[in-house]
Write a structure and sequence with these properties.
10 helices, alpha+beta, rod-shaped, 9% strand, 4-stranded antiparallel β-sheet, single chain
Length: 230
C-alpha cells in the first residue's frame, strides 16, 4: 500500500514504514459503498418470492407469529371442518326430521320382514309380535349403534337430508360407544310401539323448540353437510 504523505510503498495496511504515519484505508469507504446490507437482503427476499409460491414459503421459512386456526375461526361461524368436509349445525326442525325419518325407516323394514315371516308360517299373534319386536330391536341397534360407531355416519339421514350424527361439541360419533348406546336404548325401547312415536311427532309439529329425548339424553345432534364447489 502506498503512503499518501511520503509515497513510500508498504506491505501492511496500518502504519507507513517511511514516515510512521497511520495509513488511510481507502478500501473501507469503497467497501461501504459496495456492501449495503439492507439492499442485499431485499434482493434475496425478492428472489425467494419469485422462485416459490406463497403456500410453499410457509413450509420453508419458520414463522414466529401466531398461527391462524381455520378450524377455530369456522366454529365461530357455526361451521365445523371435519376431515376434508364442512358441516354446519342443522336447525331443530331438520334434526327432528332426521330423527323421525330414521325411526320411520325402522318401522317400514320391520313391518316388511314381519309380513314375510307371516307368509312363511308365523300365523299366531304372539309369534308375529315377537318377530316384529326382534327385528325392530336388531335394526335399531344396527342403525343407531353399529353403523355410526364404525363409520361415523347415520344410515337414513345421510341419504335423505345430507345430515349425520355428531356429538354436541361437533365431534364425530365414530368410536363413541356411550352416546350411541344411549340413543339406541331410548329410541328403540320406547318407540318399538307406534303410539309414543306419534305422540313425539305431534309435539315436534306444535313446538318449534321440541327436541326428542334420545337426542337430548345422548348429547347427539344432527349436522348438515355443506356442498363445496370442487
Amino acid at each position: 500500500m502506498i503512503c499518501s504523505h511520503c509515497k513510500s510503498e508498504n506491505n501492511n495496511f496500518y502504519y507507513c514504514k517511511g514516515c510512521g504515519r497511520k495509513l488511510e484505508q481507502e478500501h473501507k469507504t469503497q467497501a461501504k459503498e459496495i456492501a449495503q446490507p439492507h439492499e442485499f437482503i431485499e434482493e434475496v427476499i425478492d428472489i425467494i418470492e419469485k422462485k416459490f409460491y406463497p403456500a410453499e414459503l410457509g413450509s420453508i421459512i419458520p414463522m414466529n407469529s401466531h398461527q391462524i386456526s381455520l378450524e377455530e375461526m369456522s366454529k365461530d361461524e357455526g361451521i365445523f371442518l371435519i376431515g376434508s368436509e364442512q358441516w354446519r349445525e342443522a336447525s331443530q326442525t331438520t334434526q327432528n326430521s332426521c330423527f323421525f325419518s330414521e325411526i320411520f325407516f325402522l318401522y317400514m323394514f320391520s313391518s316388511i320382514i314381519t309380513m314375510i315371516g307371516y307368509i312363511a308360517g308365523a300365523d299366531s299373534i304372539e309369534m308375529i309380535f315377537q318377530l316384529y319386536v326382534s327385528v325392530f330391536l336388531a335394526l335399531s341397534f344396527t342403525v343407531w349403534f353399529i353403523i355410526p360407531y364404525f363409520s361415523g355416519f347415520s344410515a337414513v339421514s345421510s341419504v335423505m337430508y345430507r345430515c349425520s350424527m355428531f356429538l354436541s361439541s361437533g365431534e364425530s360419533v365414530k368410536n363413541h360407544a356411550k352416546p350411541l348406546f344411549t340413543i339406541f336404548l331410548f329410541s328403540a325401547v320406547p318407540y318399538v310401539f307406534v303410539i309414543p312415536f306419534i305422540n313425539s311427532l305431534i309435539k315436534s309439529k306444535f313446538s318449534a323448540g321440541y327436541k326428542p329425548k334420545p337426542l337430548s339424553l345422548s348429547g347427539i345432534n344432527y349436522m348438515e353437510k355443506i356442498n363445496t364447489a370442487k
